[in-house]
Amino acid sequence: MKTIYLDIMEQSLAAYTPERIDDYLAEVRQNGLTEHGFPRLAANIGILIAYGRRSELLDTFVELMDLCCDEMPRKKAANDFSIREVCCCLMLLEQTDLISKTLLEKWKHQLSLFDPWTYYNEVDDHSGKFVANWAMFAAVSEFMRGIYCGLDTSEFVDWQIPCQLANLDCNDMYMDDPPYRNHAVYDLVPRFLMAFLLRAGYQGKYAERIEQVLDRTATLTLQMQSVTGELPYGGRSNQFLNNEAMLCAYCEMEAARFAEKGDDATAKQFRAAALLAAESMSSYLALTPISHIKNRYEIETKMGCEEYGYFNKYMITVASNVYAAVLFENETIRPGTAPAELGGYLAKTSDRFHRVFLNHAGYFLEWDTAADPHYDANGLGRVHKKGCPSPLCLSVPFARDPNYLTEGKNPTAMSLCCYVEDGRKHIGAERYATYRLIKENYNEAVFAVTLAKNITVTERYLICETGVEISLSGAEHVGFFLPVFEFDGAEETVIAVGETSITVTYHGATCRYSFDGKLDAEYQRYYNRNGRYRVYAVKTKTLNIAIE
């Protein structure tokens, strides 16, 4: 699948027009190197050139890399992220005759002078305080710098790792900032880096513990993948294409590791999961213009993005992450069937990550039972169907005041949730709603949802061949809020509202909500990273969702 991954890298780079690259270069020449998007761009251009692609950018590459190797050894510029990628690029180019030996030796010499204790941003002081995942990035970058420059960097690498191992929950998932900001992306990032470290040859004092972390999280990581190939929703940096690029590479590295352990069955599952993630990315990269986030708003609007999640930084990160798959894939492993494709399970994280997943009959449901209100909402935040567009029903919920840009303001927090009318509507998406999983099966999840002091609703979700059946009991005057996809930033869906149903059609797929109660014809607009939704209220105790 190396060709598939190189194609993804090239598609990611294709989003950067010559004019955009020139503007980026001019900006860095004027202001200096400040972050990792620029060296990632340089590294991935060099890698593609080494593979016989984008050779017309050779002169541009030399300009970019010259600037990187000149500045990185003498200033903090988020080197934690990019030293690894620059070294990987230059190691690859040393195997070609595309760059003069004199220039390669100059760049290697400059990087050999880099002082890790001074010019990485996140160096653990061993005080016991929380240390962010930048420390793990720095450890991997320094390990690769040691390989490339022929240096012993083991002291720094082993200095950084313990603080990262201290951030793991009872399942060995990585807690980015407990208790509320434990997000899916930042669980996977450090484990992706741990896997990279092992594949690159790390055999230091923490290798055995890292192997244990990867072993213990393997099954859950596979089960958290959606039927559409995607990482779980929510939190910081979510809904960017580099998420699935990282998941793809992680799965390739894990496939290779399990194959070495003699566990062919798990290796085949990971290989299939990698391919599923690659397919998810490719569907977005085929759109015009190419964007780094899963919506179609004009890039300059930054819709769906945090302040730091801008195009120049995150678009090229797709290529950076996928290159780990190019480096470490084991092409002898034949893909089997990923758990996400097979289905027939309910999976859940620890309370620190407060997620429940249900996968059966091609449907994938995901709940957040204690959401970070800055990004998400309580309740059912994802309903995916295999082969159908992710946002068609719902891919990510709606925060009341999201920490990312949207085209309008959300009236409340919102998910696909219940409500109870008791003088006012008590909403299952809000912070005060508490969720307790009281029954689980391979195709069923039942929650006790407490909405107020004496108001508890039992929600039963059943996935069958005809769709998702949801029923409410335990309270009167109940109903559902239904988010209905309306606009992706460029294209409007087709919505048909009937007395007992709502149908939305998008890119040849249809989602139909059926109910036997009273629909409130008035709706409110809500906004998430994927676009704009209408949210309808329907007074009913039963709801069916069918996607095809």
Explain this structure.
This protein is α+β, with helices and mostly antiparallel strands and 548 residues long. Among the domains are: 225-342; 344-547, Beta-galactosidase, Chain A, domain 5. The chain has 15 helices and 17 strands. The protein has an eight-stranded antiparallel sheet with strand order 7-8-9-10-17-14-13-12, with no helix packed on it. Strands 6-5-11-16-15 form a five-stranded antiparallel sheet, with no helix packed on it. Helix 1 packs parallel to helix 13 and helix 3 (37-50) crosses helix 14.
Please give a handful of descriptors for the protein shown.
single chain, 548 residues, Beta-galactosidase, Chain A, domain 5, eight-stranded antiparallel β-sheet, 15 helices, 22% strand, globular
What is the CA-based Rg, rounded?
24 Å
Low-pLDDT runs of 5+ residues are: none
Shape: globular
What's the pLDDT, averaged over the residues? 96
Structural class: alpha+beta
Quick summary:
The protein is an alpha+beta fold and 548 residues long.
